[in-house]
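Order emerges. For instance:

***
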Amino acid sequence: MKLYRILEDGEIIESKVKGKYAGNKNLKVFGTLGCKSGKIKLKKENRVFFHIMKNAILEGYRPCKVCRPMDEKDFDKYKEIIPYKTLDEFYNKDD
C-alpha cells in the first residue's frame, strides 16, 4: 500500500490519502495536484502534500501563481492566519 508524506502541524506524517494540495518544500509554494507547473518542476524529494489549504498556509507556503488554488473566498476564510493584506500580496510574497 502506498503512503503519502503529509505535512501537518510542522511534522511529516504518512497517510493513505494523498491530500488535496501538493507543495514544494524548497520554494514554499503549494498548488493543486493537477497543476502543470508542479508536475514539471516538482522533484519527488521536494514534494509534500497537504490535506487542507489551512495546513499549507500555517507552514508558510504561498499559493501557486500558475494554478491559483486560492480565491478571494478562501483568502477571507483564512485571512486571520495570512500575514498579507490582500490575496494579490499573498500570491506575490516572494517577488
Remarks:
- Residues 21 and 33 are 6 Å apart (CA to CA).
- The two ends are 40 Å apart (CA to CA).
- Strands lie at 4-8, 11-15, 21-24, 29-32, 47-50, 62-63.
- Residues 4-91 form a domain with the DNA Methylphosphotriester Repair Domain fold (CATH 3.40.10).
